[in-house]
Amino acid sequence: MSTTKDSMYYLSGESHEFQPVICTTVGYQNCEPHSSYPVSNHPDLYNFSTRGRVLDEYQMVYITHGEGWFESDSCTRMKIRTGDIIILFPGERHIYHPDEKVGWHEYWIGFKGNREFEASMRSMYDKSDPVLHIGIDDRVLYIYETVMSLAHFERKDNQKAMMGWIGALVRQVEYDRTNFDSLHKKHNQTVLDAQILLREHLHEHISPGEVAKRLGVSYSLLREQFRATTGMSMANYALQQRLNKSKMLLANTGKSIKEISYSVGYDSISRFCCFFKEHLGITASEYRANAIKEK
């Protein structure tokens, strides 16, 4: 496994002879406008040539910000936008990249499965229609981030844990695709952009007013739209994301409580511990100990 500054994690190949599904690669990349793509530190197995690439695994690539393009043997060139999931099929030549002027943020996860799993994937997804628009779903993001943490913090039987999360991801994406219209009938792009800003800047404690300013919209209008869309205020949304990330890091990584407190916006361990206990009723150390016992 290798790690880069862009939070990429590559898992060495394993046989799925004894498991229905194995995780092969998982990671995150922030490709800024006018930057090169793909990054130069991909392993040879994952590099693109001028004609694209062919993988021997499935991948699900989630674009959480920005836009770009995708094409494959079975799908003509099409636009990719924020909230799209790209399904990559084994044996299918494909190529994708962000718009040079816009860039994008992407999460990905790669996996292989046995015959039953392969049949299930083929029944749900079609090579000729590999781009699914699901919007920004915090549950999907949580799954990617949890698997990334499991890959980074190597433990015995982590593949079994990742197998469960991959199954949850496949089911959640299918649910989001099937129910997109009803789930997102109230959503608008401004609210989605606000969610992204709040989630990606937890370490800054960015204020709702600053979110509105960065998006160039009225604070009062954004506040109203955000609550109507998500059922909570921007402040409560950020708090929930901070708790979710804290729990995920405590349960699935070897990061110290000091490191975790900094990553969610607290410059002192005592402030973080008070925040954690106030909202969950137990200390961060107790939460970590309980999570380890349950594994």
Care to describe what's here?
The protein is an alpha+beta fold and 295 residues long. The protein folds into 2 domains: 8-182, Regulatory protein AraC (Jelly Rolls), CATH 2.60.120.280; 186-294, Homeodomain-like (Arc Repressor Mutant, subunit A). It is built from 11 helices and 8 strands. The chain has helices spanning 115-124, 138-152, 158-178, 180-183, 189-200, 208-215, 219-230, 234-252, 257-263, 269-280, 284-294, and strands at residues 8-10, 21-31, 58-72, 75-81, 84-88, 94-98, 104-113, 131-133. Strands 1, 2, 3, 4, 5, 6, 7 and 8 form an 8-stranded antiparallel beta sheet that branches. A hairpin with a 2-residue loop joins strand 3 and strand 4 (75-81). It is globular and about 55 Å long. The protein starts with 7 loop residues before the first strand and ends with a helix.
How many domains make up the 3D coordinates?
Answer: 2
Q: Terminal Cα separation, in Å? A: 22 Å
Average pLDDT works out at: 84
CATH superfamily of the largest domain: Regulatory protein AraC
Q: In what range is the share of β-strand residues?
A: 15-25%
